[in-house]
Batch of 2 targets.
Target 1
Amino acid sequence: MKIRVLGTAAGGGLPQWNCGCAECAAARRSGAERSQDCLAVSGDGRAWYLVNASPDLRTQLLAAPELAPAPGTRDTPLRGVLLTSGELDHTLGLLTLREADRLTVHATEPVRRALHQAFPVGPLLASYTGSHWHTVTPGEPVELAGGLRAEAFALGGKRPRYAADLPGEGRPDRTDWVTGYRFTAADGAACAVYAPGLAEWTPAMDRAVAGADLVLLDGTFSTADELAERTGGARRSPGMGHLAVRDSLPHLARRPGPRYLYTHLNNTNPLARRDPPRAADLAAAVAAVAEDGMLIEL
Ligand code: MLT
Ligand code: MN
Ligand code: ZN
């Protein structure tokens, strides 16, 4: 299995265009920028899938040699997109893919509905390309090209703000607005987990990371009060669907084995810096911060 980490920042990126905080200012000075959370994964190194479609997608694709078309053709190695949520930082890039000959998008039922009604990317894309939407059901693996298998697991019911009033919600308690994916290849010999929106550490997350080689997980905030402290607002990270790094680290310590990498870092998070101040805490837990452009082979 090959994984190209395309982007590692939360919505807004680093620096965020309208933010002059210490982290954003440092990123502007040093050029140590982070683009918005997005991943490419392949079972055989030839057929590739995007996981999420960030607003920075065009630049991210151009920086990934594996995703270039074959010379003299428009044959792209990109076989489809899997979504972990319907959030704008995970879906705006779908419109960037409209030049595709055809496009398959895998999403859970509520995310698919949000992307056809509240934010109608589905109908918009259909005017440009032959798009096909496949409904993802947590616990039911999807067999993808190149020997890649993706199994979604439900992570929570936090819906995007633009979909707050989406009508026709069959099950108000549904927990598949946000999912993680467990990818396996080579008949289970390689396993990677991707969970950029982890509201709390659940039994499903425990099951997903058991036996995994690599876990890319939610590193939005270092602490639950980080955003409130930085912005003077009242929003705490648990209510925003993001378990703080400080609160997930004890779970990683309980589950040694995989390589843990934090991603989806908000621009308020000191861990997003080039030389993060509390990196030693992570190292003690055998975790690190993911970087844009990383290529990981399992
Ligand atoms: C999130 O990760 O919670 C969302 O992407 C927030 C946002 O709308 O930027
Ligand atoms: Mn986000
Ligand atoms: Zn900032």
Target 2
Amino acid sequence: MYWEKDIETSDRRELEKLQVQRLKKTIEYAGRSPFYGNVFKQNGITPESFRSIADIRKLPFTTKQDLRDNFPYGFLTLPKKEIIRLHSSSGTTGNPTVIFHNRHDINSWANLMARSLYCAGIRDTDVFQNICGYGLFTGGLGFQYGIERLGCLSIPAGAGNSQRQIKLMLDYGTTAAHAIPSYLTRLYEVFQAEGLDPKKDTQLKTLVIGAEPHTEEQRRRIEEMFGVKAYNSFGLSEMNGPGVAFECQYQNGLHIWEDCYIVEIIDPETLLPVPDGETGELVMTTLDREAMPLIRYRTRDLTRIIPGPCACGRTHARLDRITGRSDDMFIIKGCNVFPMQIEGVLMKIPEVGSDYLITLETINGNDEMIVEVEVKKDWFNGDISKLDKLTRVITNQIRDEVLTKPIVKLVEPGSLPKSEGKAVRVKDLRQALQISNYQH
Ligand code: ADP
Ligand code: ZN
């Protein structure tokens, strides 16, 4: 049973007391690492420097670049003998970032995951299929430990192989599953191709979706396709992985577990806190990690804290849906665009299928935004005038949203390239062009 009522519904003052106490312990641990040892010395910081949570502003931010510069062991607080696992990002853009866990960290993470799943209505009676990569990616093992701690029957299905996923669901009567949203829309197409309807032919009740940005419209579509409730799950490897913030049954924001994290929302330009309820960059401090605590870590994720209490009774703050990372934004013809703005428009249009791709390209000296959109099968029947009309509708709606006119191309379902893991929504060929010109 993972309804940790005393902590989850704790009075805010009590919660802050616990946070300060845990912050002191975190500072004590962090100070043992070469990186923070140095930072604290330079800033004259000791565990006694903290009387309230606001005192955290005495400390500088930690960035992904700091993690890279001190790769691999510069943040480690304990001898390697004490460490039992590492997780790491793929490292395509430089040194990978790596996160280490000791036994305490793994245990605390499993508890957070179990608590999160319970919060989303999963119970030990569920048969839970974890459809995601088991390996360095935190979604596999992170969920696995939580599902087991909660006591569900776990199916560690791993990623991909849709036919096999469907067979597992049917053979074992899966009632709950976790997957990234972009994969679920593909899985649905495979159900259809097999002549199956997940609403009728499976026992699915609950889906947990996360790990990549997605819109409310996308969530509603997934709920509709599978006949389930789909709950948003947020996490990042630097803060453990999944289990950082989760939706409750009210689906109105993600409770972020403040007994284990201090949350700040800052303006990414000025680095000052934004006024309550406004959107900015999420900054987090771990409060229950020992091997590699992180302090004031700049996640680059953009969100806001939803003001007011939640009807479920949990007092931990709620994060609004993450709209993307600050570096997801691109500028085209002087307009700032987030891919999720385009997804929001597309997913409201019933003819639109499950996938889309935004390509930025220089055509005849002009930068253009090309949006390829998969259209549902029944609509792709060669009726050119209907497709023309749909193209115009999509073009206008995107232009109204992002204030620049896209070139919309309708394509057949399943024709856009699929990535192994998280969906790639934007291909920026403008840069590639510059680089190749440069090389010639
Ligand atoms: P990587 O940085 O390589 O993607 P992670 O697996 O640690 O590695 O991914 C964490 C990131 O994934 C978060 O910082 C955030 O950008 C994104 N993310 C995770 N969950 C969600 C979610 N529910 N909604 C939107 N974005 C999410
Ligand atoms: Zn709630």
